[in-house]
Structures are given as structure tokens and as C-alpha cells.
């Protein structure tokens, strides 16, 4: 990116709400994305290949505002380059592409994005039924905290082109958790039920929520059954990442990443969910 101006540096010291008010279309776009860098990111991310010229330009504008509002930190002396930050921004903003000028409000509960070079061993503890407290370290490649930063392992953000075309995208996965957490009271975990837009699928609020919960619950139960049959009896494994069976929130995040990087295959595997996500993300038909 270009060297930040004195005005941009002052802007970045403002509280998050003030930056979000100022960084609006027609008011200020303080982060300039060089065309050569933008073209390289478009080339490196297969999930952006099918976007039209107008959609790519709209995504570039979202990325400029996203980068002006967020702060990137490299853990353990990892140097975060402009290309790395833009790659994260492009994938994080892709699900917001059709939501209009206020789309970035969905990410207004945090500022920091922490990049690690690789997996992180996070301390965990749990109390078993006998009252024994167990401690262990869990390898993490990404984590989203309600009201807090997003952590990503750069080795998995970068990934490989084949994985990206098979339904895997760490950035979209973690930012889908942010969508899920939107509007939930403090301390309420993600549950796979983000706030639905007014008039969702032509339904009233109550009917829309009921439709969402019924279809997602049925799809989640069916997926878990498919996975269990594959693991126990050798039946064909489901296409979606097995991690989706961990919880409804993980199922939602895994389906969102698969939807955005492999929409055609996702529609074949989950036609009912594809219709719901088309309506949720306001994605126009191809």
C-alpha cells in the first residue's frame, strides 16, 4: 500500500466508531490499493475468479475500507506485508459483496487481526464427570473471539489452490463466525443462526427464523449421520469438511466457506442450504 498520510495516521488513532463513520463511500478511502497488488491477489485467490469486473471493483472498494478500519499484527515477529493484509481483506469481504454500503457494519465489533506463521498451541482445560480437571494444548489454525480479534495461521490462509477449490477457506470460515455472532448478547456463543435481513425469502421475522432453523437443523443432523456411517462402516465420506460436525456453529462456518469457494458443488450437495445462503448473502443468480 502507499505510505500512510499524516491524515490517515491520525484517522487510525480514532476510536473504532469514529473511523467507521468517516470511512464511507464518498467521504474517505484512506487506503490506496495499487493495481498491480490487487491483480496479484485476484490471481492468487480462485474464489474471486468468477466475479465480474464490476463485482471485483466493488470488492476492491470494500477492501480499501476494511484495511482502513482494521489493524493487522504479526505474532512472534511475523512481518505482515501489504499483500498478506490484502489477501485476508479480500476473503473476509467477499461474503459482504452484495450487502450495500453498510456491509462492513457486520465486522464493527473488533479491530485487530492477528496473523501467526503457522498453527498455534492453545492451552485448554475441562472438568470431567469425576471432577478431575484436565489440561491440554489444542492446535489451532484460526480463532474468532466475540467482541475481540480474529486469529489466523498464515500458512493456512495462503493454503494451496487445490484446497481452495474443494470448499476450504480459513478466512471465510473465521469471519463467518463474526456474522454468526452479530447482534448476540455478550457471552452468547455462536450457534449457526445469524440475524436475518428483513423480508428474508419473503417471510416475516418469525417465519424466516423458523425456516432457517428447521432447514439447518435437518442438514446438520443428516451430515453428522453421513459422517458417522463413513467412519464406522466405511460408507462414502461426505464432501464437506468433517470439522463441520463439531457443533452447529462450525457447521455454519464450514458451509459458508464451501459456499463461497465452490458454489456449484455446494449447490449439488446442499440444495436447501444453497437457497438459504443465496438469500442471506443476497447473491444474484449466475
UniProtKB/TrEMBL annotation:
Tell me the InterPro entries matching this sequence. MetalloPept_cat_dom_sf, MtfA_fam, MtfA_N
Q: For this protein, what is any one GO molecular function term?
A: aminopeptidase activity
Pfam families per record: Peptidase_M90
What domain of life?
Answer: Bacteria
Q: Which Gene3D superfamilies match?
A: Collagenase (Catalytic Domain), Glucose-regulated metallo-peptidase M90, N-terminal domain
> One cellular component GO annotation, for this chain's record?
cytosol
PANTHER family per the record?
A: MTFA PEPTIDASE, PROTEIN MTFA
Q: What is this protein called?
A: Zinc-dependent peptidase
Amino acid at each position: 500500500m502507499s505510505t500512510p498520510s499524516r491524515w490517515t495516521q491520525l484517522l487510525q488513532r480514532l476510536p473504532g466508531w469514529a473511523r467507521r463513520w468517516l470511512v464511507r463511500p464518498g467521504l474517505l478511502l484512506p487506503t490506496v490499493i495499487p493495481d498491480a497488488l490487487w491483480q496479484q491477489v485476484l490471481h492468487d485467490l480462485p474464489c474471486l475468479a468468477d466475479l465480474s469486473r464490476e463485482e471485483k471493483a466493488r470488492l476492491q472498494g470494500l477492501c480499501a475500507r476494511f484495511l482502513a478500519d482494521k489493524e493487522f499484527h504479526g505474532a512472534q515477529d511475523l512481518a505482515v506485508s501489504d499483500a498478506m493484509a490484502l489477501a485476508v481483506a479480500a476473503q473476509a469481504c467477499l461474503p459482504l459483496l452484495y450487502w450495500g454500503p453498510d456491509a462492513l457494519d457486520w465486522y464493527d465489533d473488533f479491530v485487530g487481526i492477528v496473523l501467526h506463521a503457522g498453527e498455534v498451541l492453545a492451552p485448554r482445560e475441562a472438568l470431567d464427570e469425576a471432577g478431575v480437571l484436565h489440561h491440554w494444548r489444542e492446535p489451532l489454525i484460526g480463532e474468532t473471539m466475540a467482541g475481540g480479534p480474529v486469529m489466523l495461521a498464515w500458512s493456512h490462509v495462503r493454503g494451496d489452490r487445490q484446497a481452495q477449490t474443494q470448499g476450504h477457506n480459513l478466512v471465510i470460515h473465521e469471519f463467518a463466525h463474526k456474522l454468526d455472532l452479530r447482534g448476540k448478547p455478550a457471552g452468547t456463543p455462536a450457534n449457526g443462526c445469524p440475524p436475518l435481513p428483513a423480508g428474508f425469502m419473503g417471510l416475516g421475522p418469525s417465519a424466516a427464523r423458523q425456516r432457517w432453523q428447521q432447514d439447518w437443523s435437518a442438514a446438520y443432523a443428516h451430515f453428522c449421520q453421513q459422517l458417522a456411517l463413513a467412519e464406522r462402516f466405511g460408507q462414502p465420506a461426505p464432501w464437506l469438511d468433517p470439522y463441520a460436525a463439531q457443533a452447529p456453529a462450525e457447521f455454519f462456518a464450514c458451509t459458508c466457506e464451501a459456499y463461497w469457494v465452490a458454489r456449484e458443488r455446494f449447490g449439488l450437495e446442499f440444495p436447501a442450504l444453497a437457497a438459504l445462503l443465496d438469500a442471506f448473502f443476497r447473491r444474484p443468480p449466475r
